[in-house]
Amino acid sequence: MRLMDGDRPGLLFLCVANSARSQLAEGLARHLFGDRVRVQSAGSHPTRVRSQAIRVLAELGIGVGEPRSKSVDDIDADGVDLVITLCAEEVCPAFLGRAERLHWPIDDPASDDPELDTEQHLARFRAARDAIRDRLTRLGAERGW
User: Fold this and answer.
1) How much is the pTM?
2) Smallest Cα–Cα separation from 80: which of 102, 97, 103, 104?
């Protein structure tokens, strides 16, 4: 990472809509890493934050304030040291900064399938949340965050 002495690393989670996976990752990272890391999330085609993402974070006692989907175009590349893309089946957006990159393919929990009931939707979001939390826990241990 290209940090200056004493600076906190800048971490960006990136996916397409910034509505589910990257929102989950942002909330979890803020909770796990506190002030040790500057955390952001964004998408190439931001939409709206899924209520299920907010709900499954709240199950862990994690509040997200007033969440909003953000565009990658609004991110200052100079403040990002590590980009983690979370796309699985779709094409991940590009980040043009000089940051280190990791790719964590996490299946999109959001679905418009009318066959899925509320609990099935929440189960998909919990699975994504838990997969991201496990990876963040390992990342934090590896990097001393």
Assistant:
1) 0.92
2) 97
